[in-house]
Structure formats: structure tokens, C-alpha cells
Amino acid sequence: MKQISLALVLIFLVSCKSEAQKDEKSKEYKVQKSESEWKAELSDEEYRILRKAGTESPYSSPLNDVKEPGVFVCAACGNELYETKHKFDSGTGWPSFDRAIENSLAFSSDRKLGYERSELLCGDCGGHLGHIFDDGPKETTGKRHCINGVALKFKPKEKS
Ligand code: FE
């Protein structure tokens, strides 16, 4: 009996932990700003996407066409999120990557479309970036980070 209750406690602890990892919406982000500060700093479209979890129209982002080496940073706080070398053409009309720069993201989940999707957030400011799916390139990570171009700014690699 004792063993069973111990097992139950362990299961409970493990499930709490994964729950905490999954939803980092309310975590204390390094970059903290009030809604009015964000509103003043960001364009209307950046605010709608980054702070209100909006979605840009597919094929609207000029970043879809970026192929030169460089880094994609968070449009709100400048956190380095993605590299061109991990970008691929997903055919969806949104900039897509098979992985992010390590430890740059936070994760949450939403059910806006009636099913659970994993939401990707900037790990430094909590800005909404997009979602992650399991239908990315099989030969690499199998993941597809589907990102709103408005949430990113591209910094070309400096030529040496
Ligand atoms: Fe950010």
C-alpha cells in the first residue's frame, strides 16, 4: 500500500513538473514592460501579434524569402531566436525553422482553434512568436517552428 501511495505521489510530482514546463506564459521574463509601454514601442501589427498572440496573413512576410546567413531576433526585445541555417521552405507562407537557438524560447499551449497547439514565446520578453508542429523535415529534427515574420527582425551575418 505504502508503495502504491509513493508511486502516486511521484506521478503527481512528475505531472506537475511537465505542466509547469508547458505553460510559461506567466513566468517572470527578463524583459518586463507594461502593456502601454509595449503599445508605444511596437507598431500596431507587432503589438497585435507579439502581445495579443495574433497571426499574420500567410505569404505576407518579406522574411519568407531570406536565405542569406544571419540571425532572426525578437522584434520586441532583440533576443536572438533563429538562424538562417535552420530555416526551410515549409510551403505554408510563414517563416519556418526546424529548431531555435538553444534556450531562446519559452513554451505555452493554446486551444484557440479547438485543439491543443504548442505556442512558442520569446524566452526573454514572453512575446508570442508562433507555434511548433511535428511535421518538420524528417532528415533533421522533424519539428516545424511556424513563426510570424512580424515577430522577427533579420540581422544579416557581418561579412569578415
Ligand atoms: Fe522578446
Relevant terms:
Metal Binding Protein, Guanine Nucleotide Exchange Factor, Chain A; 3-stranded antiparallel beta sheet; 160 residues; alpha+beta
The number of distinct helices, counting runs of at least 4 residues, comes to 3
What value does the Rg take, in angstroms?
18 Å
| Spatial ordering of strands, largest sheet | 3-4-8-7-6-5
CATH-assigned fold name = Metal Binding Protein, Guanine Nucleotide Exchange Factor, Chain A
As a percent range, the share of helical residues equals: 10-25%
Count of individual beta strands: 9
Mean pLDDT: 90
Multimerization state: single chain
Small molecules held by this entry: fe (iii) ion
Query: What is the H/E string?
Result: HHHEEEEEEEEE
Low-confidence segments, ≥5 residues, pLDDT <50? Answer: 16-21
Strand content: 25-35%
CATH architectural group: Beta Complex
Q: Kindly, what is the distance between the CA atoms of the first and last residues, rounded to a whole number of angstroms?
A: 67 Å
Shape, please? globular
- The CATH homologous superfamily: Peptide methionine sulfoxide reductase
Biggest β-sheet description: 6 strands, antiparallel
CATH class: Mainly Beta
Write up what this structure looks like:
By secondary structure, the protein is an alpha+beta fold. It has a single domain (19-156), classed as Metal Binding Protein, Guanine Nucleotide Exchange Factor, Chain A, CATH 2.170.150. It is built from three helices and nine strands. It has helices at 2-22, 35-41, 44-51, and strands at 70-74, 80-83, 87-88, 96-97, 105-110, 117-122, 128-133, 144-147, 152-156. The strands form two sheets. A six-stranded antiparallel β-sheet has the order 3-4-8-7-6-5. Strands 2-1-9 form a three-stranded antiparallel β-sheet, with no helix packed on it. The protein is globular, with a radius of gyration of 18 Å. The termini are far apart. Residues 16-21 have low confidence and may be disordered. It binds fe (iii) ion. Fe (iii) ion binds at residues 74, 76-77, 79, 122, 124-125, 127.
